[in-house]
Amino acid sequence: MISDVAEDEEKWLAAGIAGLQQNAFYMHRALDSNNLRDALKYSAQMLSELRTSKLSPHKYYELYMRAFDELRKLEMFFKEETRRGCSIIDLYELVQHAGNILPRLYLLCTVGSVYIKSKEAPAKDVLKDLVEMCRGIQHPLRGLFLRSYLSQVSRDKLPDIGSEYEGDADTVTDAVEFVLQNFTEMNKLWVRMQHQGPARDKEKREKERSELRDLVGKNLHVLSQIEGIDLDMYKDGVLPRVLEQVVNCKDELAQFYLMDCIIQVFPDEYHLQTLDVLLGACPLLEPSVDIKTVLSQLMERLSNYAASSTEVLPEFLQVEAFSKLSNAIGKVIEAQVDMPTVGVVTLYSSLLTFTLHVHPDRLDYADQVLGACVKKLSGKGKITDSKATKQIVALLTAPLEKYNDIVTALKLSNYPHVMEYLDNETNKVMSTVIIQSIMKNKTCISTSDKVEALFELVKGLVKDLDGTLHDEIDEDDFKEEQNSVSRLIQMLYNEDPEEMFKVICTVKKHILTGGPKRLPFTVPPLVFSCLKLVRQLQGQEENPFGNETSTTPKKIFQLLNQTIEALSIVPAPELSLQLYLQCAEAANDCDLEPVAYEFFTQAYILYEEEISDSKAQVTAIHLIVGTLQRMHVFGVENRDTLTHKATGYSAKLLKKPDQCRAVYACSHLFWVDDQENMKDGERVLLCLKRALRIANAAQQMTNATRGSTGSVTLFVEILNKYLYFFEKGNPQITISTIQGLIELITTEMQSDSTTPDPAADAFFASTLRYIQFQKQKGGAVGEKYEPIKV
């Protein structure tokens, strides 16, 4: 059916073009022979093709453009005729004898153009006559194109100031009157098009009408080009007349397009000075008009105008632009009760952008916009519409981008209230954007109340929001989110220990509500922030001013203990053990023996009760030994207790090689270089001998199960320990002991039952080279190593 109509249209268009070309041919022949009567006859017949009602606007436009080209040639002929002495007035009368009204009016407009150029009559009179005569065509499509032709031929002949057609004192008023009258009539014809034809074709007609909108809009463009229109004339005469036509037409398509045209074609300073009038029309428009786009474009233009020069900013204050726009948006939303959420948020997002450009120093204005948005959204719950959500994100991002400082955004009391309308996923995205802004701008958030406000904003990342299920979370995304929270915690700092302690307490309060999945990410940075504060207070006397509430290392350690204990719900024993050992080391540096002992006790309890994986046990033992070796705060009794426990754990590891390595590592607990009271050569030797026995047992087990004694790596490692303590001056480590161990390793390596191990061979060779190198050094070191034979 549709294809048949399209084929018919093509045929009618082809027939129309053929008729037009045929008559144009005869018209050209008449023009060439200067035969005015025949030229008028054939031009009228040519223009009669435009009387068709069978073509769609798109096809009619093709036909019109061909006729337009021919009319330009006819206009040139009329100019030549007047130069040859033909009276333009007679010509103006003559064309009015054409048989049909449509050709007559096209010819009249063409001659009228020449008439105005001849200046034999005032331009305003000719234009008035033409615009009145065009009322004769009331068919919407034909009338629109006729008036479009009139607008086209007259646009350079308006009696404007400075124009060659300028008339008396009211010349600009005449030009404006002509354009406005033509615009009004064209708009009426355009609106009337929707009622032409059956109701079932309405959608098609609206599409066709949309294609013709520029014909109407060109009048407003012509109006904006009239030099003589000053602000007063625009304010009192032009804008009210245009808006009256826009409001009264009561057509959704026309109202939206024409409001958009007004905003786009007239100067920004005119919009600023006529905000009352322009905004007053908005609530009067049809409820279905997309007013959010219109107002958003107006605010965008005004924002750009404000950004163009600081000199124009006083104008905005003078006209109270913010309050007028804010009130207008409120009235529009009230008038359009069915306005979707995306429309409401878009309007406030545009208003906020405008406010941040024009009044960057007025945070109360920005907060007012956010508050108004919250008020309009109240009762709607979480926003599920993706477009509306996108606009809320734009609304929340605008202050961050403008100020590059989250601290400023935190002063906006309504900012967190807007975030509450985001769904959980988008809330997380927005929280991430806020944290990224802090990272990018290296923003320092240094007070507990600001931290409180910040964590309230990013709570979507800090704890589970209602209804979120862990199963739905992508693990990689979750890790990235929590890592960003961890980085945020590290950014919080205040030089004043009292205030920093308050910041830490605030962070602790928030992160401990995060649930077991988040704590392994958020507790470590908090612990290290605490330890940083401890180092800052290191050496400070306990309550130097006798103030019970002052921050002391002991107080911080109490908080640390509570914080690490929170990891027990995860559980994360390996992480907790590492953190306890870090705290013990910090307590050691502060000379707090009971605190350090307590942290070690907690670490040992975790090792005994929670860590069962053999690999984790090995790692834990080496961490314990390494930390304990660096401790200097313990008295003899406490140190012996902890050391005894550590060596006991080492000997109870599951695998013999792990046992051996842990035991010889314990030897360092009895020999600390810079502490004379911690050099016990005998116990070092005991550890190394015990390690040798375990290495030997490991070889025997390998031999029993696999038929070979395995690698000698453990023996080489123990040899290196012997050499270390020998070099450090341990009197219990003798040359004969080292010599015996070298020979043992050499024998084992030459044994047929030993499994070949290139790495162990290289390790042993490297050790022997070291001994040789020390011999060659000479001096005391050379003498010491000289007796060792390699």
TrEMBL record:
Family to which the UniProt record says this protein belongs: Belongs to the VPS35 family.
Name assigned to this protein: Vacuolar protein sorting-associated protein 35
Membrane topology designation: Peripheral membrane protein
UniProt keyword list: Cytoplasm, Endosome, Golgi apparatus, Membrane, Protein transport, Transport
Keyword Transferase: no
GO annotation, cellular component aspect: cytosol; endosome membrane; Golgi apparatus; late endosome; retromer, cargo-selective complex
Keyword Cell inner membrane in annotation: no
Biological function: Plays a role in vesicular protein sorting.
Superkingdom per UniProt: Eukaryota
GO BP field: intracellular protein transport; retrograde transport, endosome to Golgi
Origin species: Castanea mollissima
